[in-house]
Write a structure and sequence with these properties.
Largest sheet: none
Strand content: under 5%
Organism: Stenotrophomonas rhizophila
Radius of gyration: 29 Å
Family: Belongs to the FlgM family.
Order of helices and strands: HHH
Structural class: mainly alpha
Distance between the termini: 32 Å
InterPro entries: Anti-sigma-28_factor_FlgM_sf (IPR035890), FlgM (IPR007412), FlgM_C (IPR031316)
Helix content: 40-55%
Protein name: Negative regulator of flagellin synthesis
Keywords: Bacterial flagellum biogenesis, Cell projection, Cilium, Flagellum, Repressor, Transcription, Transcription regulation
Shape: elongated
Length: about 100
């Protein structure tokens, strides 16, 4: 089943409200049948890989403590090198990506 979504959605089903305490009646004329599963879902290899990556990233720490310590030490020692050309280049790349 497919439907076109164009932003002009119109309700096709009408809902009726049920007052508290008034439950809709259930017909007991026919015996209850189990619901059969008609839909199935199969993940592609890419989706499975993305799920595994998401699980891995959710358990990884947000900050690399080793990298932070290395930068901290190089700042304290005065050995941290700043490359303004690399910084400017990356900023321009990011700007171009955001404009797409």
């Amino acid at each position: 089943m497919s439907q076109k979504i164009d932003g002009n959605l119109q309700a096709t089903a009408h809902l009726r409200s049920i007052a508290p305490g008034n439950k809709p009646s259930v017909s007991t004329d026919a015996p209850a049948r189990p619901v059969e599963a008609a839909d199935s879902l199969k993940l592609t290899g890419e989706a499975t890989s993305l799920q595994a990556l998401q699980r891995e990233l959710s358990t990884a720490p947000a900050i690399d403590a080793g990298r932070v310590q290395a930068v901290r030490e190089s700042l304290q020692n005065g050995t941290y090198k700043i490359n303004p050309d690399a910084i400017a280049s990356r900023m321009l790349e990011l700007d171009q990506q955001l404009q797409k």
